[in-house]
Amino acid sequence: MTRPAYLSGVIEGFYGRPWRHDQRLALFPRLAAWGFTSYVYAPKDDIKLRARWREPYDDLELAALAALVAGCAAHGVRFGYAIAPCLDVRYAEDAEVERLVTKVDQLVDLGARDVLLLFDDVPHRLDDASRARFGRLAQAQAHLSERLFDHLRSRVPDGRRIVCPTDYCRRMADASGDAWGYLRTLGERLGPDVDVCWTGDEIVSERIDAASVADVADVLGRRPVIWDNLHANDYDLRRLYLGPVAGRSADLVDATAGFLTNPNTPFEVNDVAFATLAAYLADPVGYDPARAWERALEAWRPAFAVDGGDELTEAELRLLAEHCYLPWSSGPLVEALLDDARDVIDAPPDASDPRLGRVRSHAHDVERLLERLTELTDRDLLYALYGVVWEARTESRALAEYLDHRAGGGAPQRFGRPDHLANTYRRGFAADVQALLPLDRDGRVAVPTAKDSR
Ligand code: GDL
Question: How far is the CA of 86 from the centre of ligand 1 (A)?
Answer without folding.
Answer: 15
